[in-house]
Specification:
Elements (H helix, E strand, L loop, with lengths): L1 H21 L9 H17 L3 H26 L1 H4 L5 H5 E4 L3 E4 L3 E5 L2 E5 L5 E6 L3 E6 L9 E7 L4 E9 L3 E10 L2 E10 L7 H17 L7
Antiparallel strand pairs: 1-2, 3-4, 5-6, 6-7, 7-10, 8-9, 9-10
Helix pairs in contact: 1-2, 1-3, 2-3
């Protein structure tokens, strides 16, 4: 009985450690199966495996699997840009309990014969469009708490990345602009300086990824 209780306690401690390292309060993406499955294996190994070395070795291996799978799941689903925003994971990934995580394909956009795709974790709606440009903005009911705009326009010139950062006492506005491949893309993100979240450099990297994906996918004319 003492061995059974100790084994159950070890499994619970494994689950608690995994939870502590990967729990997110964003309403999506918590790796419950990755917490529970290996933790149960820890308990079963300690109860039913006869040889002491094999018993301990299997239990430690299962505990390592629990921590590894849980933290990997959290990093894939959330990343820097996802943390703390309810619903973002569901919009960017779908998950099968048997086969794992899959990225949703970026949405293809069109305007006046041009096509491109936007790989962004928050739903964007068309805010303003002309014959030569289109501006997207976060939806009013979006989970992202502050404003984001993305403007794509036809532009035959070439411009290296231009980044600007500024704002007031509580709101930080970051803007990144790049021109190449027949297009110019400008992205602006507002965030609350009082909230815990990605650093300024981390958000800049996220913005660069979105802008470069959009501009590299730009095709001036559809066929």
């Amino acid at each position: 009985m003492r061995r059974v209780l100790g084994s159950v306690a070890a499994g619970m401690l494994t689950a608690l450690l995994s939870i502590a390292l990967s729990l997110h309060f964003c309403g999506e993406g918590n790796p419950v199966m990755q917490w529970a499955g290996p933790s149960v294996c820890v308990t079963l190994a300690l109860i039913f495996v006869g040889r002491a070395r094999a018993r301990v070795g299997l239990a430690l291996a299962a505990a390592l699997v629990a921590v590894t799978l849980s933290t990997h799941y959290a990093s894939v689903v959330h990343g820097n840009i996802y943390t703390g925003a309810a619903g973002l994971a569901a919009r960017t990934q779908w998950h099968s309990p048997l086969t794992g995580l899959y990225l949703r394909a970026p949405r293809v956009r069109t305007f006046n014969g041009a096509t491109f795709s936007v790989d962004y974790p928050v739903a964007l709606r068309v805010h303003h469009a002309t014959d030569t440009s289109v501006e997207f903005a976060t939806e009013s009911n979006s989970a992202w708490p502050y404003g984001t705009s993305l403007t794509v326009s036809r532009d035959s010139s070439s411009q290296a990345e231009v980044f600007a950062s500024g704002g007031g006492s509580h709101v930080l506005t970051q803007t990144l602009e790049l021109a190449r491949n027949g297009a110019r893309v400008r992205m602006s993100v507002d965030s609350d300086t009082d909230d815990w979240g990605p650093s300024e450099d981390e958000r800049r990297e996220d913005m660069r990824r979105v802008v470069e994906h959009t501009i590299d996918s730009f095709r001036p004319h559809t066929r």
